[in-house]
Amino acid sequence: MDKNKVLVWALSLSISFFVCPLIAKELADNRSIPKLSSQVELDGLLDEAIWKEALNVKLLYETEPAENIDAKVTTQAYIFEDGEYLYIGFQAQDPGLDLLRASYRDRDDISDEDHVGIEIDTFNDQRRSYNFFVNPLGIQKDSISDDVLDREDSSWNAIWFSAGKVTADGYSVEIKIPFKILRFKDSAEKQWSINFVRSMPRDYKYRFASNPVDRDINCTICQYQQYDGLKDIERGNNIELIPYLFASKTDTRDFANNQDWQSGSVDTEAGLDMRWAIDDSSVLNVAVNPDFSQVEADAAQFDVNTRFALFFDEKRPFFLEGADYFNTMLTIFYSRNIADPDFGAKYTGKIGDASLGILASRDQTTNIIVPSSQSSSLVTLNSESDAAAFRYAYDLTDSSLLGVTMTRRSADDYSNDLISFDGKHQLTDSDVFRYQLIHTETKNPLAINAGQNQSGSAYRINYSHNDRDWSYYASHNHFDKGFRADLGFLTRSGYRKTIIGAGRRWYGDADDFLSRIEFRSDWDTTVQYDGQKLETELEASLNLQGRNQSRLDFEFGGREVFFDNRWFDQDFYEVNISFRPWNNTRLGVAYAYSDDIDFLSSSARAGETEGYSFFIDWQANRHFNAFFEWEEQSFDVAQGKFFDSSVANARFIYQFNEKSFIRFLIRYSSTEFTQDSLVLQGLNVSFTDKNLIKQLLYAYKLDAKSVFYFGYSDRAIEDDVVTSLEEDTRTIFAKFSYAFQL
Questions:
Q1: Cβ pair 726, 717 in contact under 8 A
Q2: Residue 371 falls within a domain, yes or no?
Q3: Is there a single domain that holds both residue 124 and residue 225?
Q4: Residue 308: predicted pLDDT
Q5: Under 8 Å CB-to-CB from 511, ≥6 apart: which residues?
Q6: Looking at the 3D structure of the chain, how many domains does it have?
């Protein structure tokens, strides 16, 4: 054998047996979170010596808008733990500090700001991640991402600690996360999947990360890097007690009876929320007279000439803890259906490869959404009801799961029971198959004119493919006529619907004005339970994203709709444009046109809807933010103008620091019908219906759950009796809650 070949063979063997294991060990050590003992003063400056001993992770990749190219700026993350807390530090260099977006804002309101953060899959099961983000001034945002349903829940709130500081070459951030707010496997040594991220909004909204993102893989959390270490950390049997006190006084006057102001009495509510971390992976919540007071009214929405109930987001603390444990593809549990409970209990946890959620409540108000094939209605029963929900989901593999959900709502002469089976199967990196099967049994009270008993089934099957450039999908939904999910938000029954669609994406280069172009189109058809076709629709959309964080969405199409025993041919199109003309200002405008149907009159008529909208979001300085949105909609029939509607929402906030702010809100809605009898054709309506709600609020938030509110609100109305906006309600209120951690 040639001597050179012998040397090469010997060298290769040595590398295989000695060098490669050393390299592998070094790489493994580089992904091990060290346990260190030292106090860190949370001031936003990484000047303590301990940070030099922490694991250093570089954010090397730009994942948006470019695809895994070298990051444009230097960002370094540091991480270690001390058995009780997880510490994360960031040093973010920025050559353009004059463009830095860093302001004092309310918690969870930093998405458009510069920020850094960490995303942690504590169970390492590619299902959910805890997300913690901080802006350069230390303002927090937290959320939970659900990769099964591709959702992010920003309503989740936890008590953790952070600080930020703007420096000469950028900014730095320190984060301190108690292990007791997290859920994880109960094992001596844990392996977590983690991603470190930075958002830098400039001409584009740049995203830098420690892990590259393969756009051909149809999941996000599965691409996080795995880290080990974390030895002997425990949540402990942490108990959190949150007593609250709410007081209000409301004065009213009745214009219809020429009544002057009537002074109301002071109403008080007190209660207690308890959160008990039973072990590392499960939590029990119990609430006596739960704190369901809301200090912000729901944003105004159009509710004229609509066939189906409007959806509002949940804002109440008791329901937000572990809400993701009850999520399924179809919304069979909608917590806002539980309107006014006097007691609530909830258990959520991870047991091996399974997750479990159980909820029970007693509701003093019983609101029921009654669906049909072409509309829905709301019925309120004059009785209390019991509400319960149960969900169990089992992970078959890293990419597949099966779940079962049951809900029940019952009162004296009424009950609604639901059982559901659902599954998700990741067929390939880009292909997902989902399904859900549901059955319901209902015993109706006399207030619901639908027969004494009814039952029905429903199912949805869905296939989707999503890679870097292409997406295509097919879905089929079927709902029996007797189907009712009284604890859910499914406003239609007695129909089946099939959807088939596809989309194509293109990406720009670094110097292009457009960073992304996407075109999508789909076809769907809807058939009633008796075989009558209700709708066939073909629509398409074009999305453009570009410089100045500009975005244009153009949607257009046509449909045939069967209603009131006749067919309506409809065309529609809508364009939405938003951009940042200046670094501190975002503007948006929209225009929409659609052939429509008059659902109010006794005999349906063809009509046309035309709508305009506008919004401005202005961050005047680090403390003051102003937001305004306005939308107007007109509806015309062949005989002339039928009605005009408009809604406006305005918000002005002065944020003193990370803990306190003062806010002024305005909610306005107006509907004015024509007085032309030829157009009305005997329809009995109020010609004018206007509401103006104002609220002034001072808030001090010691942490996510310890808060003090003091405010004043009033409402003014205008109708056919009151000829100009006049106040009929005024309220002064205060709320205090404090989180005791034992």
A1: yes
A2: yes
A3: yes
A4: 41
A5: none
A6: 3
Residue 434, pLDDT > 90, answer yes
Is residue 549 in some structural domain? no
Q: pLDDT tens digits, residue range 606-617? A: 999 999 999 999
pLDDT of residue 16: 40
Q: Domain of 347?
A: 316-493
Q: Cα angle at 318 between 312 and 320, to 5 degrees?
A: 55
Beta strands of 431-549 (E only): which ranges? 431-443, 453-466, 470-479, 495-507, 514-528, 533-546
Q: Where is the domain boundary, 477, 493, 509?
A: 493
Specify the CATH number for the domain of residue 162.
2.60.40.1190
Residues 124, 20 share a domain:
no
Nearest to 90 by CA among 8, 213, 199: 199
* 568 located within any domain: no
DSSP summary character for residue 52: G
CA 10 to CA 5: how far, in whole Å? Answer: 8
Are both 120 and 18 inside the same structural domain?
no
Q: How far apart are CA 80 and CA 229, in angstroms?
A: 10
3-state secondary structure 515-526: EEEEEEEEEEEE
Model confidence at 153: pLDDT above 90: no
How would residue 4 be classed by pLDDT, with cut points 50, 70 and 90? very low
Task: For residues 106 and 204, state if they share a domain.
Answer: yes
What are the beta bridge partners of residue 175? 88, 162
pLDDT value at position 71? 96
Q: What average pLDDT score do residues 342-351 get? A: 89
Strand ranges in 135-288 using DSSP code E only, listed in sequence order:
140-146, 151-153, 161-167, 170-178, 192-201, 205-209, 225-229, 239-252, 266-279, 282-288
Q: Quote the CA–CA distance of 653 and 257 in Å, as a whole number.
A: 38
Of the three residues 229, 249, 272, the one that is the final residue of a domain is 229
Indicate whether 18 and 37 sit together in one domain.
Answer: no
pLDDT of residue 237: 60
The mean of the pLDDT values for the chain is 88
74 CB contacts (<8 Å, ≥6 apart)? 58, 93
How many CB atoms neighbour CB 675 within 10 A? 10
What integer pLDDT is reported at residue 188 of this predicted model? 63
pLDDT, one tens digit per residue, over 436-450 is: 999 999 998 877 876
The DSSP string of 71-127 is: -SS-EEEEEEE-SSEEEEEEEEE-S-GGG-------TT--TTS-EEEEEEETT-SSS
Rounded Cα gap, residues 593 and 577, in angstroms: 15
Say if residue 43 is in the same domain as residue 64.
yes
Instruction: Give yes or no: residues 129 and 223 share one domain.
Output: yes
Q: Which amino acid is at 715?
A: R
Name the band, by pLDDT with cuts 50, 70 and 90, for residue 574. very high
First to last CA, the chain: 74
For residue 667, being part of any structural domain is answered with no
DSSP code at position 677: H
pLDDT at 294: 52
Residues 35 and 22 placed together within one structural domain of the fold: no
- pLDDT digit string (tens) for 440-480? 999 988 778 767 789 999 999 999 999 999 999 999 999 99
